[in-house]
Amino acid sequence: MAEIDRGSVLDEVASLGSALVVVAHPDDESFGLGGVLAALTRSGVDVRVLCLTHGEASTLGATKDLAAVRRDELATAAERLGVSDVVLHDFPDGGLDAIDPAVLDGVVLDVLGSAATLIGFDADGVTGHPDHRAATAAALRVAMDQGLHVLEWGVSPAVAEVLNAELGTTFAGLTGDSASDIEVDRTVQLEAIACHESQSTDNPVLVRRLEISGPVDRIRLRRPGG
Ligand SMILES: [Zn+2]
Questions:
Q1: Other beta carbons within 10 Å of 26
Q2: Around Cβ 61, how many Cβ atoms within 10 Å?
Q3: Which residues pair with 50 in a beta bridge?
Q4: Can you give the pTM of this predicted structure?
Q5: Between residues 1 and 147, which one has the greater pLDDT?
Q6: How do residues 102-114 score in pLDDT, each as one tens digit?
Q7: Quick one: DSSP state of residue 155?
Q8: How far away, in angstroms, is 131 Cα from ligand 1 center?
Q9: Residue numbers of the domain that contains 123
């Protein structure tokens, strides 16, 4: 495991100013990014969330009102994380990779405001999920075009290996020279996760991932021109 960075990457992000989270589904901001987002808002960073779908295709908590349920869960979780605003779009869950990239980029630009950093899953979508990849790809394109930082979150190769072996998942592992491990306090994240009751109630992969990860999150900060 790489040496644990005691927060200097997050300090750098905090020093840049406000941040915009770009994710595919309600719960991505909590299940994945919750530890990082809680740390940033605790430091006084203005964090907003752009979520591109209502997550209506989930096989968990299936009900005909799932889109509305998940919209409400996202609002509650975001408040718990200290997020100042949520913009929720209704692109099709499971179909983000079929949307014209220029359309997704336009949506990100529309809500960009004064954000200095875009935050999302890693470029592999953490598990290779096409929606996650499409959301992060849009963030990366806009950041490159606008000269912004991108903070990616993923799991370490060691955590990915255990999860994939035990549960048959497809975690990619966030690697590369600039990836680092940071220690996070999961208290607020766990409260935000609980707000997503439809998705967290029977979710062994989530439980096991948090168990294996302990207080450590893997991130990478992409700097403009870097
Ligand atoms: Zn997701």
A1: 33
A2: 18
A3: 22, 87
A4: 0.96
A5: 147
A6: 999 999 999 999 9
A7: -
A8: 7
A9: 4-222
Q: List, in order, residues 6 or more apart from 5 with CB less than 8 Å away.
A: 180, 181, 182
Split into its structural domains, the chain has a count of 1
pLDDT, one tens digit per residue, over 76-101 is 999 999 999 999 999 999 999 999 99
Residue at 222: amino acid letter: R
120 C-alpha to ligand 1 centroid (Å):
11
pLDDT tens by residue, 184-217: 999 999 999 999 999 999 999 999 999 999 999 9
* Residue 43 and residue 198 in contact, taking contact as beta carbons nearer than 8 Å: no
Say how many Å lie between the CA of residue 132 and the centre of ligand 1.
Answer: 6
Token pair of 151 as six digits: 């903070």
Sign of CA dihedral 209, 65, 73, 89: positive
33 CA distance to ligand 1 middle (Å): 11
Tokens read off for 129: 């999920």
From the CA of 102, how far away is ligand 1's center (Å)? 21
Protein residues near ligand 1, an ion, with CB under 5 A: 25, 28
Q: Three-state DSSP class for 58? A: coil
Instruction: Return d(Cα 171, Cα 206) in angstroms, integer.
Output: 12
CATH code where residue 74 lies: 3.40.50.10320
